[in-house]
Write a structure and sequence with these properties.
By secondary structure, this protein is an alpha/beta fold. The protein has helices spanning about 15-25, 45-60, 80-95, 110-130, 150-160, 170-175, 180-185, 215-225, 250-265, and strands at about 1-5, 30-35, 60-70, 100-105, 135-140, 165-170, 190-195, 230-235. It contains nine helices and eight strands. Strand 7 (about 190-195), helix 8 (about 215-225) and strand 8 (about 230-235) form a beta-alpha-beta unit. Helix 1 (about 15-25) runs parallel beside helix 2 and helix 3 packs parallel to helix 4 (about 110-130). The longest helix is centred in the middle third of the chain and has 21 residues, at about 110-130. The termini are close together.
């Protein structure tokens, strides 16, 4: 498996510094948070996109994907959501990134059936556009659809190889699913896996990998046992928890922890 980290852990950090961190600590790739607060988002021009590609290539680091914020199950017109997804897919294509992350984002007043149908319709509509540009749209296990079983209802209805799943190990556990159950649901669709660690179900402040309660050992064992060889991406949510320790100081030990888990599970 390849290792990456998300720029959610280094809010606003210039791309040259992000790339240097990845290279210095032995990470194969980076997931870029695609938000206007960050250096990389759909509003940047072609020249800036080209500069980002050059920075990553110079250090031999891959752009794993874009962490977008389109909410595919949210109520409202399809048009703005589809336009947001297309903007993310265009950016991913220009950067050579294989994946774009989207959220479910259903509202409390929506029924499960309505939310599932809305998400499936939008993802199905966007699928061919993504396929034409060689990008895969990944529905993250998050918010209204936090388990693998939740995501599977949508992905099964879409049935397109350019729409898949991003497994966030925190949300599936908090949703009551065990790693083997999540993998069984998502394995035909799995793009990559976001790892992290937290203090408890009631305190989701980010911690160094291995210092919290999430079943990272079990997750890695399930993936290894089933021969999955994709990406593990550390999503350290520093942006939402200002008091959390700085990620750069944790990247080296975090990589060592993941390598140890991979070695033990081999």
């Amino acid at each position: 498996m390849k290792l990456a980290f998300s720029t959610l852990g280094v809010p606003g950090l210039p791309i040259p510094d992000v790339v240097r961190l990845a290279a210095a600590h032995g990470y194969h790739g980076v997931e870029l948070r695609a938000h206007p607060e960050e250096p990389v988002h759909p509003g940047i021009d072609q020249a800036e996109r080209d500069r980002v590609v050059t920075e990553f290539k110079a250090q031999g680091v891959e752009i794993l994907g874009l962490g977008g914020y389109a909410r595919v199950a949210a109520p409202g017109d399809d048009g703005p959501v589809l336009a947001e997804i297309r903007g993310l897919v265009d950016l991913a294509h220009d950067l050579g990134a294989p994946f774009v992350r989207v959220f479910p984002g259903a509202a409390p007043e929506q029924s499960t059936e309505e939310a599932d149908a809305t998400a499936a319709r939008r993802l199905g509509t966007a699928a061919q556009y993504a396929a034409d540009l060689g990008v895969r749209i990944l529905l993250e296990t998050h918010d209204s659809h936090r388990t693998g079983a939740d995501a599977l209802r949508v992905l099964g209805a879409v049935g397109h190889r350019h729409v898949g799943a991003l497994w966030d190990v925190m949300h599936t556990l908090l949703g009551g699913e065990q790693p083997q159950e999540t993998f069984a649901a998502l394995s035909p669709y799995l793009g990559y896996v976001q790892v992290k660690d937290i203090a408890s179900a009631d305190d989701t402040s980010p911690l160094p990998l291995g210092a919290g309660v999430l079943p990272l050992t079990e997750c890695v064992e399930v993936l290894s046992r089933n021969g999955w060889d994709g990406w593990l991406c550390w999503e350290y949510e520093k942006r939402w928890y200002e008091a959390a320790a700085p990620l750069p100081d944790l990247l080296g030990p975090g990589r060592e922890h993941l390598v140890r888990l991979l070695s033990d599970s081999a």
